[in-house]
């Protein structure tokens, strides 16, 4: 049976074969990552203009192509103004074709803090890899190319300790989980609480807003939800942490002990308590796609 378009959602398009990569034991392809990044940008972050998700295919072009003028024109023109840029890293040797490319996904995040009027922005890269930093050299190559294109140089890269996969195929799921956690934390800091619509609850025009793929750890959830306004005041404009949180105990302090440095570190800290079983995440993603197919009246294979 010929592969045909299942549906389009903003700037992502899924074909009928793409949801098959969500089955247990399969390697997620770039289309699934692109779809979920679009979902985070439009449903969770509600189009926040300070954040950006780069498409996997664009990241591959950045790494593999040497024509800098062409690459410069391919980048979003306002990329240098974003506070947070999510950059999916793949070790493939070509731009994505049908059937996929490479053998490992990881996540690079570029964070930019504006110190004040007339001052130079502080840029830091944060790296998350679920396979013992297997993609670190690839991430460095992407970072170097971005620095050339954005006029940056020798910016710090922080390699974060993060949960590790137990097999050779869940790397894409972990990238989605890491991005989901960080994007929702960022939304908690910047956006007002979502107000249910009296007509359709929390359903949006395109896809129903869903809870996080994973429950945010209790310590952060207490701060991000119960004290949303207080954190937003402390963290605005968004600040970049100096390093990982030195100890889990800092995630459990009370509001009266709130300190900016601790929140900064907590933002980037991801541990096993933040994640669900990867197979559960696959089922949640498939359900989300299935719901969109129902809205579009397209059967999901």
TrEMBL record:
Annotated signal sequence range: none
Record keywords, A-Z: Hydrolase, Protease, Thiol protease
Keyword Ribosomal protein set for record: no
UniProt-recorded Gene Ontology molecular function terms: cysteine-type peptidase activity; deNEDDylase activity
Pfam family, one: Peptidase_C48
GO annotation terms (biological process): protein deneddylation; proteolysis
Entry keyword Oxidoreductase: no
EC number: 3.4.22.68
Domain named Ubiquitin-like protease family profile: residues: 12-182
PANTHER family in the record: SENTRIN-SPECIFIC PROTEASE 8
Family statement: Belongs to the peptidase C48 family.
Name by which UniProt lists this protein: SUMO1 sentrin specific peptidase 8
Species of the source: Coemansia interrupta
